[in-house]
UniProtKB/TrEMBL annotation:
Biological process per Gene Ontology, one example term: quaternary ammonium group transport
The name this protein goes by in its record: ABC transporter ATP-binding protein
Keyword set, alphabetical order: ATP-binding, Nucleotide-binding, Transport
Originating organism: Chromohalobacter japonicus
Chain coiled-coil ranges: none
GO molecular function: ATP binding; ATP hydrolysis activity
Location of the ABC transporter domain: 12-242
Annotated SMART domains: AAA
Length: 351
């Protein structure tokens, strides 16, 4: 008999949470357990309810039904300041007339923390986010990434039980965003802090999360680690959001599989398809087994995606996207070239 889940595995519990604005349902019957110290990302397109759900957990938005529990305590009725939850927003909401130190210390002052302890906690937190040398600067003297770290420090200094982050990196440029992803994850792991992170960026979710809750139209469509959601989507909607999946009906997929699947949809990741030109050079020479019979087609588009080349192939009335490792110019296949497209049969996903 399986052991019952531990209290630590159900540190944060969302039980039947529902929210409506008038006649519009924002989310309905949300159920989830989040472990102590886990980093969970709420991923989904704009309007799916992820940010409203985060605000409901924080107590900033009242729910119409359901309960929120933290460490066995129901907190649904508590105001935000009594929940022990920190929140970081996309827009930093710093006080422009205060220094970095005073911005971080503000919450401690409101809680009447003694001066000596306040000084120590602010110093330690600024060191944690690598801003100790900027303590006496004002927000306008900082970069966007530095301001976001001040906002993070302001939450961390209060030693929250749970940290909620609502698209905190989306306003930053790509290089800074990449660095802060790694820094945020390192800090979260160092502190063992239970964290919910909202984003619409699949790469961000895959890179940072222990688990991902993919949301759509007010529901959680699929939960799991990044590998599970990316390689084993449970619906066409999940497959479509997690990457440039090729979604085919059973008849279209039959030429790739070698048989007609008893399913409404068959999906293939673009990197699970392989091209063979008329000169019999497979675009990935390491892939020689588990290939289906393939279908003929014509390359109608070739796009450089850095270390990957994405081909669009028109293939017997339907189009396929095929990703190949960029191994240099002599391995490129030209637009207009006649090719065979083969699928790795072990990577086909039957829906």
């Amino acid at each position: 008999m399986a052991e019952p889940p531990s209290a630590d595995s159900r540190y944060l519990r969302l039980q039947g949470l529902s929210k409506r604005f008038g006649a519009t349902s924002v989310f309905e019957g949300i159920e989830a357990d989040i472990a102590r110290g886990e980093f969970v990302t709420l991923l989904g397109p704009s309007g799916c309810g992820k940010s409203t759900l985060l605000r409901a957990i924080a107590g900033l938005t009242a729910v119409d039904a359901g309960h929120v529990e933290v460490d066995g305590e129901t907190i649904t009725h508590l105001p935000p300041q009594k929940r022990g939850i920190g929140m970081v927003f996309q827009h930093y909401a710093l006080f422009p007339n205060m220094t970095v130190f005073d911005n971080v210390a503000f919450g401690l002052r409101m809680h009447k923390v003694p001066s000596a302890e306040r000084q120590q906690r602010v110093d330690e937190t600024l060191s944690l986010v690598e801003l100790e040398t900027h303590a006496h600067k004002h927000p306008h003297q900082l970069s966007g990434g530095q301001r976001q770290r001040v906002a993070l420090a302001r939450s961390l200094v209060l030693e929250p039980r749970i940290l909620l982050m609502d698209e905190p990196l989306s306003a930053l440029d790509a290089r800074i965003r990449q660095h802060l992803r790694e820094q945020l994850r390192n800090i979260q792991q160092q502190l063992g802090l239970t964290t919910l992170f909202v984003t619409h960026d699949q790469e961000e979710a895959l890179m940072m999360s222990d688990r991902i809750f993919l949301m759509g139209k007010g529901n959680i469509l699929q939960k799991g680690d990044g590998e599970a959601l990316y390689t084993r989507p449970e619906s066409q909607e999940v497959a479509g959001f997690m990457g440039a999946y090729n979604c085919l009906d059973a008849q279209q997929a039959s030429s790739l599989l070698g048989y007609e699947a008893d399913a409404a949809q068959v999906v293939f990741r673009p990197e699970a398809l392989y091209l063979k030109s008329t000169t019999d050079e497979i675009n990935d020479p390491t892939m020689t087994s588990h290939l289906g019979p393939g279908c003929g087609g014509v390359i109608v588009q070739r796009r450089l995606l850095g270390n990957v080349i994405r081909y669009r192939v028109e293939c017997q009335g339907f189009a396929l996207h095929v990703d190949a490792l960029n191994r240099g110019a002599r391995y490129l296949l030209s637009e207009g070239a006649n090719v065979m497209v083969h699928a790795d049969l072990e990577e086909a996903r039957i829906l």
